[in-house]
Design a protein that fits this description.
single chain
Length: 354
C-alpha cells in the first residue's frame, strides 16, 4: 500500500482516540518514584507553551493562536522528577489533551512521582477551508504554516481537500510537539524536572508523532520555515535542546517519517541510528486495524537491526479477544497500559523505586 493510500485510510480515525516527602535527591542523581500511588496530585491546566499560525472558516490570512498543555505533578518536595509528555490521538483531524484515558494515565504517573504533561496541538480544525483553491492559492494560504515542499507533496495523489489538510496537519503536529518539549526543558526548574529522564508517548496520531519526535533531528520540523514566514516560532524556545530517553507508542505507525523521507528525499538510514530512544509499543492484532500490527513489527525490526532496546506488548482485551485500535483497556498478562509502561520505564531508565 502506498503512503498516500495509507494516509487516506488513516483519515477514518475517530478522535481516539497523601503526604509530602522530604527532598529526595539532587537533580544529577537517579529519580526516585513510588511503586504505588503515594502523592496527592497537583494540576495546572491550559498552560500556553507556544503560539502557532492558524486559519478559521472565514480567514484569508493566518493568525496566531495559543498552544496549550495540562500539567500533573506530585505534591511532594522532590527536586528530581522524571517527566512523561503525552500526545493525544485523533487522526490529525481533532482530539483533546484531557481525554479521560489520558487523565487516568496522568494521575497514575503523577501519584507515583512523575511530572506528566498532556499537550494539545494544531489539527485540521485549525486549517480553515481550502475547497476550490488552486495549488498556487493553497501555497499562499498556508505560507508560514507548513513548508511549500510539504504542501506540494500533500497535493500529489490526494483525492480531496480533506486529505491535503490531514497531510499538512501532520507537519503542524510535529512542529507543535517539538515546541512543547522545548517548553518542558525551558521550564524544568519550575517543576523540578530532571531533563535526563524525558519520556514521550502518544496514542494513534500521537504515537505517529512520538516516533517522529524521537527519531528526527532537533532541526527537523523546526527550521524548514523561517521566523519571517512564521513569527510565532519566536515563542517556541528555539534556543532549547532536549534528549528523549524513552518513547511509548500505542497503536501507531511509522507513516510520518515515511512522508518526511518522501518530501526531503531521505532514506531509512538518514532517520534511524543506534542512539535513538528506547521504545515501548502497545498494539493489538484485531483485523482491519487502521494502523496495522505490521507497523509495530516493522519498527521492531528496524530497532533490532540497530541494537536498540525495544518491547512490543501485543494487547488483548480483558475477555481475551485481540485488541483493536484505541484499546485503552488492552492488557498483557492482566497488566494495563499504565502498569506495563511503568514497568518498562522503571527498568530501562534504572529509576529507584520505593
Amino acid at each position: 500500500m502506498n503512503k498516500i493510500a495509507y494516509l487516506i485510510i488513516f483519515g477514518v480515525l475517530l478522535f481516539t482516540a497523601c503526604s509530602k516527602d522530604e527532598p529526595i535527591s539532587p537533580v544529577n542523581a537517579i529519580p526516585v518514584v513510588k511503586a504505588e500511588a503515594s502523592y496527592t496530585i497537583l494540576k495546572e491546566e491550559d498552560i500556553t507553551y507556544a503560539n502557532g499560525l492558524s486559519h478559521n472558516a472565514t480567514s484569508n490570512s493566518a493568525f496566531s493562536i495559543p498552544l496549550k498543555l495540562d500539567l500533573y505533578y506530585p505534591d511532594n518536595n522532590s527536586s528530581n522528577r522524571p517527566v512523561f509528555m503525552f500526545i493525544h490521538g485523533g487522526g490529525f483531524t481533532g482530539g483533546i489533551k484531557h481525554k479521560p484515558e489520558i487523565v487516568d494515565m496522568a494521575n497514575y504517573y503523577a501519584s507515583r512521582g512523575w511530572v506528566f504533561i498532556s499537550i494539545d496541538y494544531r489539527t485540521t480544525e485549525e486549517l480553515g477551508v481550502i475547497q476550490g483553491m488552486t495549488p498556487e492559492e493553497l501555497l499562499v494560504y498556508y505560507r508560514g504554516i507548513a513548508p511549500q515542499e510539504w504542501i506540494e507533496n500533500a497535493l500529489q495523489g490526494a483525492q480531496s481537500s480533506g486529505q491535503v489538510q490531514q497531510a499538512t496537519a501532520m507537519y503542524l503536529a510535529q512542529r507543535d510537539a517539538k515546541a512543547a518539549l522545548r517548553w518542558i526543558v525551558a521550564n524544568a526548574s519550575t517543576y523540578n524536572i530532571n531533563k535526563d529522564f524525558i519520556t514521550v508517548g502518544g496514542a494513534s496520531a500521537g504515537a505517529i508523532t512520538t516516533i517522529a519526535l524521537g527519531i528526527s533531528n532537533q532541526e527537523d520540523f523546526r527550521d524548514e520555515i523561517t521566523i519571517s514566514e512564521d513569527p510565532t516560532l519566536s515563542t517556541t524556545n528555539l534556543n532549547q535542546t532536549y534528549n528523549v530517553r524513552s518513547m511509548v507508542y500505542f497503536w501507531g505507525s511509522n507513516i510520518k517519517l515515511d512522508v518526511f523521507e518522501a518530501v526531503y528525499d531521505l532514506n531509512q538510514y538518514d532517520r534511524y541510528d543506534g542512539s535513538d530512544p528506547e521504545l515501548f509499543m502497545g498494539h493489538g492484532t484485531a483485523q482491519d486495524l487502521v494502523t496495522p500490527y505490521e507497523e509495530a513489527l516493522e519498527l521492531q525490526s528496524i530497532y533490532n537491526s540497530l541494537g536498540i532496546y525495544n518491547k512490543l506488548a501485543t494487547l488483548t482485551l480483558p475477555n481475551g479477544n485481540p485488541a483493536g485500535h484505541g484499546a485503552w483497556n488492552g492488557v498483557v498478562d492482566g497488566k494495563g497500559l499504565s502498569e506495563l509502561t511503568f514497568d518498562f520505564l522503571v527498568e530501562r531508565q534504572n529509576l529507584s523505586v520505593e
